[in-house]
Amino acid sequence: MERVRHRRVLNIPVRVDHRLGRHGCSQGAENPSLGGGGDLLCRIRRVHVHRFRVRALTTQLPGRGHQLDNLRVEIQTIDDRQGWNDAVANLPTAHVLQSHEWGELKSRHGWHTTRLLFLGNGKPIAASSVLLRRLPRGPWGVMYAPKGPALDYEDTELVTVVLSELERLARERRAIFLKIDPDVGEDRTQVRSLLEARGWKASPEQIQFRNTVLIDLRQSEEQLLAAMKSKWRYNVRLAQRRGVEVYQGGMDDLPLFYDMYTATSARDQFIIRPFSYYADAWGTFVKAGLAQIFMARYQEEVLAGLIVFHFGDRAWYMYGASVDRHRNLMPNHLLQWEAIRWAKAQGYSFYDMWGAPEALDEKDPMWGVYRFKEGFGGTPHVVEGISLGLGPSYGLP
Question: Is residue 247 a contact partner of residue 297, using CB atoms and an 8 Å limit?
């Protein structure tokens, strides 16, 4: 453990809303996705602690019944995989891009990862995995918290504490800008006003998709089918009648999936990376139990596949691929339906289709992709990236 480098007193009331999900680590519950539960603090190995003493206040959370006195917020940087994942997965707005695995993946491809965990009275209340990449010249870099930070954005005092620490870290690491894009809808005007008051601005360049489609898995299968467009239901049943089968794949299926992904990129005209990158990315999450491969076959010939990432209360349709043959059998419709059914059976609350056009316009090249996803009965969801400009004129040495 390193020595505490600084100690500050914050006169900020902080409220806690744990919203522990189906893997509540404070209860020591086992987490089938992450490989076990248990006490978070017992598993933190490499810890750097910045302690914040917060003035004792009594705050009542609307509708939650939490009355807090003498709340002390600790900010820790941790490297323990299980401890980090258990904490983040149970926070509001948890996202797979804030997982330990994503940070490690990016660390192998030119980024440095810092993980900040915020504890209120010893329990996780916020977290942010922050990526830093150095520019080719000079001491400067760029900083990005992919789909983070994770916290309750209704708690403006807590938002203020987390933003302050991220801004401090960005200046300390000489970042020329800091970008965040938490999974908070653009209709959250209170959050936007708070960010703008601190100098943050909507980013013209989005790193992740601005638009997506969310399917609420808390419905029954019958309700999910009923919410689909009639043609989509027909295609699902057509694929079943004509003998298309869907099976769960594994690591051995990655080369075949990449071959189909290559064919898909050529057909739909988008750029992909070499197999070595995807073998690292897909393999990392499959081995960690945070991704599942699905393949559709007809008479022993694989026609299509998709990879679902899952974390917290959500599953994401992250990658899809198919061949040109037998498209009339509608394998992609059945494949998607079986992935949705699987995510629901695993206990996830939402299925994120992950990606839609920047503008929902029929002229957009991704309009066909959006129509396919939207046909499964989901709801459009808009998230906008926010940036804070930094540099010498902002007080960096």
Answer: yes
